[in-house]
Specification:
It is a single chain. The chain is of the alpha/beta class. It is about 40% helix and about 15% strand. The protein contains 14 helices and ten strands. The strands form two sheets. It has an eight-stranded mixed sheet, sandwiched between helices. Helix 2 packs across helix 14 and helix 8 packs antiparallel against helix 9. The two termini are about 35 Å apart.
């Protein structure tokens, strides 16, 4: 879908019914929302924010990040920045990478399923999102991939199975090419290989139209304002529009509210958009051309590629050709009737497929 146009200009904040809403008003609304949740869960079962202090924006100033659960929250340093992670379980490391417009919490179902299956499951917030550092630069895919491999090293592990959704999948592809010794296995959901994404967006009109939100992100300042306007109502619309046929569990109002409040953390909207801006603006620049050439290197780790058959944001046709870039066992799995978020739309089915493949000592093609 296309991000709606707006006549707003400047950088002060989104416009509300009574005129411009400044940063202080955004913070005030967020504090009221978080205070209500700290007093107890709402009737729809929305989760509470973790009460312990953490990085800016974790509690009380824009949305939840350190949500309560069986997992443990902490920060790790990597690639010159600090990253928030949620971890659970012991065993081989499985590092989970979220997409847009979400944060680590999107993997809440897989964290528990992987831990129960004997893995050390870690979900990280990407640079600029959730509880991780919001740096002024560093949002090109090569640097973001180094964030991921740096976190693997900071966790004291020799390697990891990377599981990435959407933008997290794009970066997982990149990390597997750039640092293959640190990637034991690769799992990508709802995202084609970067070279496949590039060619589809440029030559396939249907995919270019489906990804029109990426083109809309190229405007300065306006997309950020739209994302946080009306308490990030656009985030809720994107999640609902991109999901498959609705189930009672996803996307319900309580879940959408969590993602909306997380997007309202100051600077999150801008940082979330920056990778997409690089992906388009670099197409004809030397750095983008160099990255595209670098991604010609084949992926040489076993790869599981997952996709929802009704994904309206990334067409099945766009993702299905990614196997040509893999010189290792490659398995394609299409989830019938699911949209852009198969790990949340059918968490049990997704987790079962993921764990079965991770435990297979010799995954076939």
């Amino acid at each position: 879908m296309t991000v709606p146009d707006s006549s707003a200009s400047g950088t002060e904040g989104p416009e509300g019914p009574e005129g411009p809403v400044g940063p202080e008003d955004q913070v005030g609304h967020a504090r009221q929302a978080d205070q209500a949740r700290q007093e107890g869960p709402d009737k729809s079962g929305a989760p509470r924010s973790h009460g312990s202090p953490g990085p800016a924006g974790v509690t009380g100033i824009g949305g939840p990040v350190r949500l309560d659960g069986p997992w443990t929250h902490r920060d790790v340093a990597a690639n010159g920045a600090r990253f928030h992670i949620a971890e659970l379980g012991d065993g081989p490391l499985v590092l989970l990478l979220h997409g847009f417009p979400q944060f680590w919490w999107t993997w809440r179902h897989q964290l528990t399923a992987l831990a129960d299956a004997g893995f050390r499951a870690v979900a990280m917030d990407l640079r600029g999102v959730g509880g991780s550092d919001r740096t002024p630069r560093g949002y090109d895919p090569a640097n973001l991939a180094l964030d991921i491999t740096g976190v693997i090293r900071s966790l004291g592990e020799p390697d990891a199975a990377l599981v990435g959704h959407d933008m997290g999948g794009y970066l997982a592809w990149t990390a597997a090419v750039m640092r293959p010794k640190l990637v034991r296995r690769l799992v990508v959901s709802s995202m084609p290989h970067p070279r496949r994404w590039r060619s589809s967006m440029l030559s396939d009109f249907a995919q270019s139209r489906a990804g029109s939100y990426v083109w809309g992100f190229q405007r300065p300042w306006v997309p950020e304002r739209q994302l946080v306007a009306d308490e990030a109502a656009l985030v809720g619309r994107l999640i609902r529009d991109w999901a498959g046929p609705r189930t009672p569990e996803f996307p319900n109002d309580a879940v959408v509210d969590v993602y909306r409040r997380a997007m309202c953390i100051p600077s999150t909207a801008h940082c979330s958009i920056e990778p997409y801006r690089w992906m388009v603006r670099s197409l004809a620049r030397p750095d983008g051309i160099q990255f595209n050439r670098r991604m010609k290197r084949p992926v040489r780790v076993p790869t599981l590629h997952l996709h929802g058959s009704l994904d309206p944001a990334i067409r099945t046709r766009s993702s299905a050709g990614s196997g040509e870039y893999v010189e290792a066992p490659y398995r394609w799995r299409l989830f019938d009737g699911l949209g852009h978020f198969p790990h949340e739309e059918d968490p049990a089915g997704f987790s079962a497929e993921l764990i079965s493949w991770l435990k297979d000592p010799e995954p076939d093609r």
